[in-house]
Amino acid sequence: MTPQKTSVEATKETPIYQLKITLKELKLPIWRRVLIPGTMTLNKLHRSLQIVMGWDYHLHFFTIGKELYGVPELGCNFGVREKDDRKYKLQDVVPVVKIKFLYVYDFGDDWIHEILVEKILPSYKEIKHPVCLGGKFAGSPENSGGIWGYADMIEVLNDPEHENYESVKEWRGEDFDPEFFDIEAVNPG
Question: pTM (2 decimals)?
């Protein structure tokens, strides 16, 4: 009798990673829980994280163990030999659950995210793209000055008497609510 293979091995389907992404060093616990195909490259993971966190266009890198992954030709290696994140798949660099790694976005504002591999699941045939399962609080806006700038912005928005209240409200828009996370906006229709 031959040993039984797991369904992932037997069908050669892609494992699905359940990740929890948490923006570090912020009083508001901004986080997202996503399902990501294990065969996704780190660069495509970066693009998925941009969508679920509400980011758009700045540079990034991942730190996994002692390795730095990014786009080497952009020159963002901080004196460390950077591995090309377009060549590494999620399942190859974080092969087991409970691993934590960092995603740093926007080198001026330095948004640091901790990513936890919560589960590795068998493939779901109906999942053809990353899916956000949940989250809390709106993502911090681009170019808001990092953690400290965002914290200041929240403080201003919570005080209609603040001298900068009107200008911040105009900049962010009347509808901006830092406590609202719109899951439908980040999931494909």
Answer: 0.83
